[in-house]
Write a structure and sequence with these properties.
This protein has helices at residues 12-22, 61-80, and strands at 4-9, 36-42, 103-109. It has 110 residues and is of the alpha+beta class. Helix content is 28%, strand content 18%. The protein has a 3-stranded antiparallel sheet with strand order 1-2-3.
Length: 110
Amino acid sequence: SQTGRYYCVTSEDMVEKISKECLPEMNQPKAENAALIITTFVQNRSGFQKDGTPDNELGNGWGCYDLGLQNENLVLKAWELGYDTTEIIIEIITEMPGTCENVRVFFNRN
């Protein structure tokens, strides 16, 4: 199953808000004048049986693994098109509009 989800932040106000509220201070300058992509994955799906039991001890680790591979493809394509990228991976604890409670949210600056 494809559990990766991508949210492009297009509003300058939201870029500033996310930078100040979610990024460590040392990383905030990297978000200036940048396109921000928030990557997520749906928990309890990849690596789980239909009855909700995990396939093995990795559990939601499979969702992180799959998302990492998808992010790698995104970064490689951006590089091929001439864009530099920086991945800043942190877990956002706040609620994000348009997501539901079983989605784990990460921040990815591209």
